[in-house]
Amino acid sequence: MRGKFEKFGLIGMGAVLGVMISLNYSAIAEKDSKPQLPLDDLRTFAEIFGKIKSDYVEPIEDKKLITEAINGMLTGLDPHSAYLDADGFKDLQAGTQGEFGGLGIEVGMEDGFVKVVSPIEDTPAYKAGIKAGDLIIKLDDTPVKGLTLNDAVKRMRGKPDSVIVLTVARKNEPKPLIFKIARAVIKTKSIKPKLVEANYGYVRITQFQEHTGQDLATALKALATENKGKLQGLVLDMRNNPGGLLNAAVGVSAAFLPKNELVVYTEGRTEDAKMRLSATPQDYVRGGPKDDYLRDLPADFKTVPMVVLVNGGSASASEIVAGALQDHKRAVIMGTQSFGKGSVQTILPMNNGTAIKLTTARYFTPKGRSIQAKGIVPDILVEESTLTGGQAAVGLREADLNHHLSNPKETEAEPAAPAAPAAPAEPAAKPEADAPKKPGADAAAATGPAEFGSKSDYQLNQALNLLKGLQILQKKQAAAN
Question: What are the beta bridge partners of residue 202?
Fold first, then answer.
């Protein structure tokens, strides 16, 4: 009897594959005259499926086998393509809107482990001391090896205030670090502005979310009001910014570029993947020109001297902005070489409530540079100080990830960034003798979370010095004329 059921299962699987082939061949014939579905490989797939169903040590549901096959098919392509089940798809949608539950880290998969791309500021993971480049090897008592990225992310999510223990391998640490982190409903603010000195503004962008462009416009107008006049310099900080929505990156760029200037273009195999996005409302506002949040932005922001701060944790959308401002010579890029994620992921919803995140294109800066596996090379190289340590010390970049896409222009030589004077040695901060310990405090004590925008932020201070120097130079030139 069991043999009959197995035969029926194999026949059913063959029938499904046959229907898939017959339905897809007609559609593919219009797109490409060459056959796209490898029949022999599909037969092998059906044979392996049947063998697992009949001979595996325990019974396995068809849905699980097919889901794992889809997972493997996508994760084997590159580090950023993935299958999103119904819950994962909802979480992704919530994340781009600026509110989601969990620990607050941008992660990827590397050698079967979860690798931290960047911790999100003001989240539990960030405050506990999780760093870019950390390799998460255990979640509570569960080894990460063998889990899919979606499974690992699900385990990291949970009810607010519930605690999870992360075991982390960190470069240059002799043994794994243990972090006890309380989960929280994470509400991230992507824009953090302040007037660091009279006439000098500072805006930090932590992520590119749905309302980032609009929030930036509001922040810039508030800075102009607080300063009671035109700013003499502006620092745009995108360090450890893992990216986000493409249209938000275009909107941020458009705030500082002349209208209609090219921001980024993409190249892929389909017509939908070939885009040219410019500093024009239809490319950054979903509702079109009538909803243009930049229409009443003071014109001074198109010309104010700017420094853009980036580091190895600046990826994707933040690299688009930095590349556009660099190509148009609108800003001086300062810091360390960026992450190098120059690919576009498209979310493709499926009919059953799931979705796939598929790499569909590479993006290029206005001058045709591909950032994929290369990153943005700063105009002025300034290493991070010990007080704001982080990504630079770890050295994790796109080129280090398995299956990363190649750079189509990788044979071209990268210009070397001019080095800045080395930072003077800084004394380590003294811990408070009787301060109560918090979860993760022991692991975080060596480095602590980065304090971007603080008075001890060495790169920010160097940016301000450059802006002040430019201001003095401009005044001298004006006097000479």
Answer: 194, 235
Give 10-residue mean pLDDT values along the chain (481 residues): 44 45 43 67 94 95 93 90 86 67 84 85 91 92 88 87 95 94 87 96 94 96 94 96 92 97 96 95 86 95 97 94 98 96 92 93 96 95 66 60 78 43 34 37 45 91 95 76 64
In the set 316, 318, 343, 370, the catalytic residue is 316
Kindly state whether residues 53 and 116 are assigned to the same domain: no
Choosing from 341, 379, 385, 457, which is the catalytic residue? 341
Domain presence at residue 68: no
Same domain? For 243 and 148 the reply is no
Separation CA 350–CA 93 (nearest Å): 14
Q: Which residues pair with 118 in a beta bridge?
A: 106
17, part of any domain: yes
Residues in the chain, overall count: 481
CA 56-62-63 angle, to 5 degrees, is 130
> Are residues 463 and 407 part of one domain?
yes
Q: Which residues contact 349 (CB under 8 A, 6 or more apart)?
A: 89, 355
Tell me whether strands 355-364 and 262-268 are parallel, antiparallel or unpaired: antiparallel
Q: What is the pTM of this model?
A: 0.72
The residue range of the domain holding 166 is 83-187
Instruction: Clarify whether 62 is annotated catalytic.
Output: no
Q: Which of 78, 91, 215, 327 is catalytic?
A: 327
Residues 375 and 462 in one domain: yes
Active site residue 327: yes
Let me know: does 360 contact 344? Beta carbons within 8 Å: yes
In this structure, are 171 and 256 located in the same domain? no
Considering the domain architecture, whether residues 322 and 384 belong to the same structural domain is answered as: yes
In sequence order, which residues have a C-beta less than 8 Å from that of residue 427 and are 6 or more positions away? none
Domain with 178 in it: what CATH number? 2.30.42.10
194 is annotated as an active-site residue:
no
